[in-house]
């Protein structure tokens, strides 16, 4: 349980009440303003800034201000004080201020600040405007105690300090600012408005304090300030010479001004204020610097805050707040934290001095009271002097939470108790008498009342103040004597005594009424036997005996003979003895006629004012008095009161003549008073700001209103003049003029600005200028005027002139600069201009040599476009454009020394219009060159054979392209086709035969021609009504021996012979030179190959028709054994596989199909004898299931596996022999990451440490691995190495090479796969010559040669078959 945990309920109640008294938005905004004459400029700026401040505070969603205070002061007066909830009235009172006197230093500023704090609510904002130090600085202690109790902030805006900042009158400002967490800003007169802009931002509700330090010397300091998530806005305020602020977030990022850091105030040699929005909770770094004495304040906006109080006793009296701890006693600190939600908690409390250094730290415990907001610290002994409190803890999310007290606390040195008791107590015999004694002390004390050495009652214990008393029921002679009051504390004992004695006793006489001229005797009877002295007084003055009418009789009676009207009044008799004094009184009334006396004020009133007209009526008997208006009596319900006429909320109709009437039996009297209505004095308007020429007459007018009409006084600066008109105004007449209206109801003030200037004029004429081309030249335009005229340049020809202000400078003159220039000078009072003619000599316009307007080139060929400059001075600048766009030199285009544009390899994209443009000051010259890229014609292949029924329309397409567009012609055989109704040609080159006939059958040729060449394509058309082709004739050729396929044709006209093979034209693609068509039309094969086997067709066509013959060519091997059952009419060939040439087949893991071909034997198809695939039967092989087609020529695998790769052989046999064909199958496996290395993980490593990042993947073939860092490929460097290696298997041993980057540290991760199965991961650590490779599973080990030097090292694994491939990134420690 925390110390005294159960006894702080009273203190908690006090803190709760103090928080309830100051809710958010309950603060006061107070301006304490020095109204001496030197503060005129400050007052004008404060008037303007106040409206912005009020507008800003009223626009906030949470209103921080509840009322407004204005306290003007000067020497020796303070006030009148204004406190209002109406912001408009506050501004009006501020505008009504007027400066007076001037030059006084110091001023009564401490008393003014105290007045503002007294009338302000707790937690208020108080701003002091002055240019002088304090005169009444000795009153500071009471003000400091008041600030500590009210927790208000005081900010000083000083535009002067009387020249001595070491004087106690200035140092008191520093102490007030430090105590209230305020600051001092030293400014020039013109900078007050800048501070007021900051005040707009500074006045906010829920403000909390984070750091407050004051430093006597300059320097740089860095502070760690935790920002918790509840902070919405943080303000950093530094006051001092040459201020500077730098802020870093928890990640180390420095905040930039204008972006993350908002600058609220920047006065180079006085202050800097910045604001930021904490976007990340954590510890922020704030670095400040200043060259001299400075202060730092860091505040924020948050709903989490605290209040603290002190107690020196186990019991706490909630009626006595403990804002100031006492030295020399154990003090308990009680903290009430608001806005902190569970499980957030406070952990400790620290005491700081004003320089920011920790004095001591204590843990905090949650109180045992019913609320979790109350925290108690262990008892402490407070240090001497001023200190601040900081509470530390964490919020509900665990973020650090720091808060600082809003004021400094001052420890108090306790003194002796102060005892008060009346020194002389008069007691009357037989009557009760109470003897009371009170005392006060900073520490607890006992209070005792005694007589002699006897205690009258038991002493009582009090904390701060208390009193004791003793009652004497009936006073007697024995009660006379001394009584003593004693107060005892730990500091010492204080005593005070009182003497009790019975005074004489008087019998009060009765009042006396007499008429003028009578004799009057007034007597006082004194009871008792003790000697006494009796004296008389009249209306508080001693009655003067011996004046001829007044005398004292022997029995001490007072006689007046005769009385006069002026003798009436109150008479007192005083009896004095050794034991005391007794007093009695009587009234002497002299009968007199009624009389009336009316208080002459007020005689003027304003609308809404409360009026009291006092009337004093006398006479004896007392007359009856009434009030009359215009001679008519006012009734009681018409605001009439006895003796006083009370008019509430007066209106103009209440003006008039009033009289007070008194009457009695002796007569009557009446006296009157006149009330005049006075309207509020205001300045309706003044002449707006004027700008006049020097020497002109100026009239300043000021329109005012008020009743009676106010008096008008004009001010300029600090001087007061009654001026309305200025004759022959001069420059020194410029300035701010103020019009003040003075009336009985107050004053009003308005200002206007007068500026006296002169029109622009040239002090000397401007002359023309001549310059050579390329030289620099300046055109001067000197002008005078007030204000300084603005000079602009223009050209007479209207061309734009950019960036000319003042003298015109041309670094290199050109013909384009030659013109007539106009210098124009203008200010508010006029405009003048002058011309300057600039002539540029020694120039020539550019000219380009003529060249061919069109350049043609074939694709891929180099080309240069000429641009030769014939003339131009200065030498022209040259540029190339293509189709109006700038050509940028690069890899494709280059500009040669002669200016020509060169293209190494022209392409179709280069075609277009190129322009060479040369320019100098006199103009420009352009020349266009058209670049044409010629492309030889190209015909897209189409159908080779076209069949059609007789009478059907036939379309033969010729898809030809080229540049320029080729012309298309058609020929049938060797005869060109002429266009006719039978043959029609479309624009795209398509030949149309609307109605075909057998005579149209034949071979058609399409020819495309342009300037770059020609292209030809043949297209066959075989009509179903033409000649019929017979069955192919089988032909057997011997491998490597010449063979001829006969095709001898006859016809008229001579037919055209065309060979085709299954069924493409034989010569449409390049063929080996062993193919040749003989003059007879036969086809000769010089050296037949197995791949030449196939169906060959010879077609002959002319205008009369066509005919064809087909051969089935088979190529036989060199052996000659004949198979049974094969015909011998032709040479029976060896069986051959008719397929594409043998090639290595590559497949991904999927379904595949191997098409082998047809196995033929001899000329008879039924004699073919397909044989099974060679090698191990496919049905017994490992891997995926394999299906063989019935003919044996197709092998199908459903799902290919790695075990399926290898060589497949198809064998085909018959009686004539056998043939085989091999297919090599490789199975590719896509890359795949292994062991989860494709997952992104976070890796941490110490600074200067080493790090290995592993990336392992499998695939066939072995994949290539590339590392990237922030999107860029990783390249080897001093600190980064790529480790890679390849282990191969030979026999039963595994070895390989791995790169070793250094000799001091290396780590390698290797994947071992003996016999095709993974056994685990191995690690290698280079720790010495005997280090070996250790593996995680199966106990696999490897011998390793240590890294004796950077380079490659060997890895040897005996008795293992393994393979390894991969790549690792090795990051060595050190700076990147």
Description:
- This is Ig-like domain-containing protein.
- The structure is a single chain.
- The protein is mainly beta and about 1400 residues long.
- It has 13 domains: about 25-205, Rossmann fold (3-Layer(aba) Sandwich); about 205-300, Jelly Rolls; about 305-410, Sandwich (Immunoglobulin-like), CATH 2.60.40; about 420-500, Immunoglobulins (Immunoglobulin-like), CATH 2.60.40; about 505-590, Immunoglobulin-like, CATH 2.60.40; about 590-675, Immunoglobulin-like, CATH 2.60.40; about 680-755, Immunoglobulin-like (Sandwich); about 760-840, Immunoglobulin-like, CATH 2.60.40.10; and more.
- About 5% of the residues lie in helices and about 45% in strands.
- The chain is built from seven helices and 114 strands.
- The chain has a nine-stranded antiparallel sheet, with no helix packed on it. Strands 15, 16, 17, 18, 19, 20, 21 and 22 form an eight-stranded antiparallel sheet that branches. Strands 3-2-1-4-5-6 form a six-stranded mixed sheet, sandwiched between helices.
- Strand 70 and strand 71 form a beta hairpin.
- It starts with 8 loop residues before the first helix and ends in a 5-residue tail after the last strand.
**What is the CATH homology-level superfamily of the largest domain?**
von Willebrand factor, type A domain
The radius of gyration is 60 Å
Strand arrangement in the largest pleated sheet: 103-114-107-108-113-112-111-110-109
Which CATH first-tier class of the largest domain would you pick? Alpha Beta
């Amino acid at each position: 349980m925390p110390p005294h945990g159960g006894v702080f309920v009273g203190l908690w109640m006090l803190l709760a009440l103090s928080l309830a008294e100051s809710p958010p938005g309950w603060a006061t905004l107070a301006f304490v303003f020095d109204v001496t004459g030197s503060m005129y400029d400050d007052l004008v700026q404060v008037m303007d800034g106040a409206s912005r401040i009020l507008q800003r505070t009223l626009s906030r969603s949470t209103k921080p201000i509840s009322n407004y205070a204005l306290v003007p002061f000067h020497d020796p007066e303070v006030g009148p004080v204004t406190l209002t909830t109406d912001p408009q009235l506050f501004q009006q009172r501020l505008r009504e201020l007027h400066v007076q006197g001037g030059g006084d230093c110091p001023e009564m500023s401490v008393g003014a600040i105290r007045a503002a704090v007294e009338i302000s609510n707790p937690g208020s904002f108080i701003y002091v405007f002055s240019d002088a130090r304090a005169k009444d600085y000795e009153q500071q202690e009471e003000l400091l105690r008041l600030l500590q109790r009210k927790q208000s902030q005081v900010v000083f805006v000083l535009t002067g300090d009387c020249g001595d900042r070491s004087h106690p009158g200035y140092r008191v400002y520093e102490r007030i600012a430090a105590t209230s967490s305020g600051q001092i800003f030293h400014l020039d007169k013109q900078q007050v408005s800048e501070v007021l802009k900051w005040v707009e931002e500074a006045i906010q509700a829920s403000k909390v304090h984070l750091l407050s330090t004051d430093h006597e010397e300059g320097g740089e300091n860095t502070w760690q300030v935790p920002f918790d998530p509840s902070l919405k806005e943080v303000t950093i305020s530094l006051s001092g010479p040459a201020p500077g602020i730098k802020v870093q977030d928890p990640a180390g990022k420095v905040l930039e001004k204008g972006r993350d850091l908002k600058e609220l105030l920047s006065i180079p040699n006085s202050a800097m204020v910045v604001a930021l929005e904490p976007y990340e909770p954590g510890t922020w770094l704030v670095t400040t610097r200043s060259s001299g004495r400075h202060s730092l304040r860091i505040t924020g906006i948050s709903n989490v805050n605290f209040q603290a109080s002190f107690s020196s006793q186990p019991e706490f009296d909630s009626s006595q707040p403990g804002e100031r701890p006492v030295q020399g006693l154990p003090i308990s600190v009680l903290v009430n934290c608001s806005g902190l939600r569970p499980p957030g908690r406070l952990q400790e409390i620290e005491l700081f001095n004003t320089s920011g250094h920790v004095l001591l730290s204590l843990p905090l415990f949650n109180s045992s009271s019913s609320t979790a907001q109350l925290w108690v610290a262990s008892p402490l002994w407070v240090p001497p002097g001023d200190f601040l409190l900081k509470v530390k803890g964490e919020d509900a999310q665990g973020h650090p939470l720091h808060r600082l007290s809003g004021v400094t606390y001052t420890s108090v040195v306790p003194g002796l108790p102060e005892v008060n008791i009346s020194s002389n107590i008069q007691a009357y015999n037989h009557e009760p008498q109470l003897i009371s004694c009170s005392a006060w002390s900073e520490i607890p004390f006992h209070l005792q009342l005694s007589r002699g050495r006897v205690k009258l009652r038991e002493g009582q214990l009090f904390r701060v103040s208390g009193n004791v008393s003793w009652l004497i029921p009936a006073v007697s002679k024995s009660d006379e004597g001394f009584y003593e009051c004693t107060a005892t504390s730990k500091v010492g004992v204080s005593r005070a005594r009182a003497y009790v004695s019975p005074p004489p006793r008087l019998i009060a006489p009765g009042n006396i009424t007499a008429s003028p001229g009578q004799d009057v005797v007034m007597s006082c009877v004194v009871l008792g036997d003790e000697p006494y002295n009796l004296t008389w007084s009249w209306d508080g003055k001693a009655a003067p005996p011996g004046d001829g009418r007044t005398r004292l009789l022997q029995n001490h009676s007072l006689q007046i003979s005769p009385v006069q009207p002026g003798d009436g009044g109150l008479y007192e008799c005083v009896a004095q003895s050794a034991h005391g004094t007794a007093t009695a009184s009587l009234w002497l009334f002299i009968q007199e006629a009624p009389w009336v006396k009316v208080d002459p004020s007020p005689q003027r009133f304003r609308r809404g004012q409360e009026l009291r007209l006092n009337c004093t009526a006398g006479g004896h008997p007392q007359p009856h008095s009434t009030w009359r208006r215009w001679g008519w009596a006012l009734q009681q319900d018409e605001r009439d009161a006895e003796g006083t006429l009370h008019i509430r909320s007066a209106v103009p109709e209440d003006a008039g003549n009033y009289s007070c009437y008194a009457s009695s039996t002796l007569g009557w009297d009446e006296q009157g008073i006149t009330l005049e209505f006075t309207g509020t004095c205001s300045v309706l308007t003044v002449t707006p700001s004027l700008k006049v020429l020097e020497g002109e007459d100026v009239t300043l007018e000021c329109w005012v209103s008020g009743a009676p009409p106010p008096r008008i006084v004009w001010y300029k600066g600090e001087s007061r003049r009654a001026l309305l008109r200025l004759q022959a105004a001069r420059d020194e007449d410029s300035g701010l003029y103020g019009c003040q209206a003075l009336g009985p109801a107050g004053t009003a003030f308005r200002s206007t600005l007068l500026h006296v200037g002169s029109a622009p004029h040239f002090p000397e004429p401007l002359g023309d200028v001549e310059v050579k081309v390329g030289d620099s030249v300046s055109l001067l335009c000197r002008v005078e005027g007030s204000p300084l005229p603005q000079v602009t340049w223009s050209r007479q020809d209207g061309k734009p002139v950019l960036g000319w202000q003042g003298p015109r400078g041309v670094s290199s003159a050109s013909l384009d600069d030659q013109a007539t220039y106009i210098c124009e000078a203008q200010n508010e009072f006029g405009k003048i201009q002058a011309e300057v003619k600039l002539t540029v000599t020694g120039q020539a316009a550019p000219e380009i040599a003529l060249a061919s307007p069109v350049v043609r080139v074939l694709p891929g060929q180099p080309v240069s476009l000429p641009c030769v400059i014939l003339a131009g001075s200065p030498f022209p600048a040259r540029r190339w454009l293509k189709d109006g766009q700038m050509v940028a030199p690069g890899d494709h285009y280059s500009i040669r020394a002669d200016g020509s544009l060169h293209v190494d390899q022209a392409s179709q994209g280069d075609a277009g219009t190129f322009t060479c443009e040369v320019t100098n000051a006199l103009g420009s010259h352009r020349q266009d060159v058209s670049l044409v890229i010629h492309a030889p014609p190209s015909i897209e292949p189409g159908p080779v054979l076209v069949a059609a029924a007789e009478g059907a329309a036939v379309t033969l397409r010729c898809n030809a392209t080229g540049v320029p567009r080729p012309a298309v012609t058609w020929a049938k055989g060797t005869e060109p086709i002429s266009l006719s109704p039978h043959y029609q040609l479309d624009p795209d080159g398509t030949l149309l035969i609307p109605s075909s006939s057998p005579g149209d059958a034949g071979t058609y040729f399409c020819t495309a021609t342009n300037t770059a060449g020609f292209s030809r394509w043949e297209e066959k058309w075989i009509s179903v009504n033409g000649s019929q082709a017979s069955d192919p004739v089988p032909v057997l050729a011997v491998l490597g021996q010449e063979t001829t396929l006969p095709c001898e044709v006859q016809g008229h006209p001579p037919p055209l012979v065309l060979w085709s093979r299954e069924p493409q034209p034989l010569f449409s693609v390049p063929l080996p030179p062993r193919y040749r068509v003989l003059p007879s039309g036969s086809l000769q094969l010089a050296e037949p190959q197995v791949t030449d086997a196939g169906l060959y067709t010879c077609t002959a066509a002319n205008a009369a028709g066509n005919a064809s013959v087909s051969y089935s060519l088979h190529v036989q091997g060199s052996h000659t054994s004949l198979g049974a059952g094969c015909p011998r009419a032709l040479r029976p060939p060896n069986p051959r596989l008719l397929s594409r040439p043998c090639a290595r087949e590559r497949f991904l893991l999927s379904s595949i199909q191997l098409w082998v071909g047809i196995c033929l034997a001899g000329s008879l198809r039924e004699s073919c004898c397909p044989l099974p695939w060679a090698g191990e039967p496919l049905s017994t092989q490992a891997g995926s299931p394999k299906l063989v087609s019935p003919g044996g020529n197709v092998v199908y695998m459903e799902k290919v596996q790695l075990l399926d790769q290898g060589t497949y052989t198809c064998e085909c046999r018959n009686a004539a022999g056998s043939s085989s064909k091999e297919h090599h199958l490789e199975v590719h496996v896509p890359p795949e990451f292994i062991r989860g290395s494709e997952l992104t993980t976070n890796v941490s490593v110490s600074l200067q440490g080493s790090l290995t990042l592993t990336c392992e993947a499998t695939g066939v073939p072995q994949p290539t691995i590339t590392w990237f860092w922030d999107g860029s490929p990783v390249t080897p460097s001093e600190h980064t190495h790529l480790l890679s290696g390849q282990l191969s298997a030979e026999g039963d041993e595994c070895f390989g090479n791995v790169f070793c980057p250094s000799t001091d540290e290396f780590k390698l991760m290797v994947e071992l796969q003996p016999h095709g199965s993974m056994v685990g991961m191995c690690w290698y650590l280079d720790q010495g010559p005997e280090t070996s490779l250790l593996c995680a599973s199966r106990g696999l080990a490897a011998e390793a040669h240590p890294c004796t030097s950077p380079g490659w090292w060997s890895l040897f694994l005996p008795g293992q078959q393994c393979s390894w491939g991969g790549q690792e990134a090795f990051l060595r420690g050190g700076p990147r």
